[in-house]
Specification:
Radius of gyration of chain A: 20 Å
Radius of gyration of chain B: 19 Å
Number of domains of chain B: 1
Number of helices of chain B: 13
Order of helices and strands of chain B: HHHHHHHHHHHHH
Shape of chain B: globular
Structural class of chain A: alpha/beta
Largest sheet of chain B: none
Oligomer: heterodimer
Number of helices of chain A: 8
Largest interface: A-B, 37 and 33 residues
Number of strands of chain B: 0
Helix content of chain A: 25-40%
């Protein structure tokens, strides 16, 4: 039986070009259409990666090694260089806490706004809203604008919403996991494993070696834009530490 | 939450079940709320502001400058033109930053980036709707009848929408690459204000400079808005057809440019 891939990356290269800020308006106008005379620097170099459905892949590497750029390319927010081939099979979301939160809106309004952003319909949000409020432990403050919330309350609310993200492939950049006080941390860790990890394909960029060790099936180590894939997370961690 | 927002939510919740539509609506709702009001009386403020404008124009131009002699119902005449012009100016000036302001969406979810422009223009159109509501109150108070071709206004509005959409797309692609475009656009908007017949009859421009009359799509939009909503004259059908075609072609060009350059531009944000 052939293995079903959620993400396939072949010969991925990415160079960023920068404009000369001292260039005149006309020069910049010409550069805009010809993309000439720009200084280019390569941030990702010949990356190959296959992620099977339901797999949990970790991406580690020092700051500036190209981890976040790789996630943005997988999501389609930025374009790789010509010749790179990326195929994704399933709906993607890059999970971050509180995407598009508006502090002047109440928790209820923010749940609806944030819910539509992460792929839920208004009806689905209506069906889940009580569960979200209860999970976030905000029953008494649901109609209060969230500018009056503490940062802990906001984190709880955004985590409770994010648990319901409607996507088959989830990209997680840096920290995403247990938030709030100890009791809530325990509860959120459990919910994270049950809601996010179950049956979904995860690509997780992390500096937390504990997360990498506990959850990852494979690890891609990025070093100066070049990638090395490890099937054993422990081996990836020790190579990373020796860099 | 206002009754207006609630009605939209309830309608979509019951009939749409389409995440894309609902996301566009929610984002437009929040944008509108941020721009026009943010408290319990917000909706009222959105109406009081344009009503006050009409009252001021009436007082200044009819009573002080006595401009009403040459143009009947000058306060309404002026306000009618200003509604479409201000909406266009807001749509393009704030819309050129849309890729910056909505970068958080581009970097986190997969969606059609053109939705950002729909959202933006819906939010601007809701504001325009409030201004038109105030305008109709003004018509009632002053005992003026609406134009006899009022039912053709949707075509004028569609032309306005296509033109605003196209220009907003073009400006938003240029903005991250050329900072100066914001200043250049401000100057062009100022020039546009004086050559679009907002303060004086646009017919004079068409008669004196026919080429300018046809080259400036806003002249036709304003003339036809007044023909539909205030005057009892015939529509400027030729101008309307040319404006519509111009807006459509510009939109196609802007969509092509968006497809070709948007990803490269987003890298530069």
């Amino acid at each position: 039986m052939t293995e079903e891939f959620a993400i396939t990356i072949e010969n991925l290269n990415k160079s960023f070009s920068s404009f000369d800020i001292n260039a005149s308006f006309t020069e910049r106008l010409i550069n805009f259409f010809t993309i000439k005379n720009e200084k280019a620097h390569k941030v990702l170099c010949d990356i190959n990666l296959n992620v099977s459905k339901g797999e949990f892949i970790g991406i580690i590497g020092k700051n500036g090694s190209g981890k976040s750029t790789l996630l943005k390319i997988i999501l389609g927010a930025i374009k790789p260089d010509n010749g790179s081939k990326i195929t994704t099979n399933g709906k993607l979301i890059r999970l971050a806490l509180g995407i598009g939160f508006d502090v002047n809106l109440t928790a209820r309004d923010n749940i609806y706004l944030n819910g539509t952003i992460i792929g839920l319909t208004l009806k689905e949000i209506g069906d889940k809203i009580e569960e979200i409020i209860e999970f976030a432990e905000l029953q008494d403050f649901v109609d209060t604008p969230i500018r009056f919330y503490s940062s802990g309350m906001k984190s709880k609310l955004s985590f409770a919403i994010a648990l319901h993200a409607d996507a088959e492939i989830i990209l997680i950049d840096e920290f995403f996991g247990a938030v709030g006080d100890n009791a809530f941390k325990e509860k959120s860790q459990k919910a994270f494993e049950e809601n996010i990890l179950k049956g979904k394909t995860i690509v997780h960029v992390s500096h937390s070696m504990k997360t990498i060790k506990n959850h990852c099936d494979k690890v891609l180590l990025l070093n100066r834009g070049r990638g090395q894939l490890f099937n054993d997370p422990m081996q990836a961690i020790s190579t990373y530490k020796s860099l | 939450m206002s009754i207006f927002s609630r009605v939209g939510d309830l309608y979509l919740e019951k009939f749409s079940h389409n995440n894309r539509l609902e996301r566009i609506w929610k984002l437009a709702q929040v944008d509108f709320r941020k721009r026009y009001y943010n408290d319990k009386f917000g909706l009222l403020w959105a109406l009081i502001n344009p009503l006050t404008q009409i009252a001021i124009y009436y007082f200044v131009f009819t009573k002080i400058f006595q401009r009403g002699g040459s143009i009947p119902n000058f306060a309404l005449y002026l306000f009618c033109g200003l509604i479409v012009w201000i909406a266009f100016s807001q749509a393009t000036s704030t819309g050129m930053r849309i890729l910056y302001t909505k970068k958080y969406l581009i970097e986190n979810i997969q969606f059609n980036w053109l939705d950002l422009y729909y959202t933006h223009l819906i939010s601007i159109s809701i504001g325009m709707l409030f201004n038109f509501f105030a305008y109709f109150i003004g018509l009632l108070i002053m005992g003026v009848s609406i134009g006899k071709y009022w039912y053709l206004f949707p075509i004028v509005f569609l032309t306005w929408y296509l033109l605003s959409f196209a220009i907003t797309i073009i400006l938003s692609i240029l903005r991250p690459v050329f900072d100066d475009i914001a200043h250049i656009w401000k100057i062009l908007v100022m020039i546009g204000f004086w050559i679009s017949g907002i303060f004086f009859p646009g017919e004079a421009i068409v008669e004196m400079y026919p080429l300018l009359g046809f080259a400036n799509p806003f002249l036709g939009i304003i003339l036809n808005t007044r023909a539909c909503l205030l005057e009892q004259n015939e529509l400027f059908a030729n101008l309307l057809a040319i404006n519509f075609l111009f807006s459509l072609v510009l939109l196609l060009i802007s969509l092509f440019a968006f497809k070709k350059y948007s990803q490269s531009v987003i890298e530069k944000l």
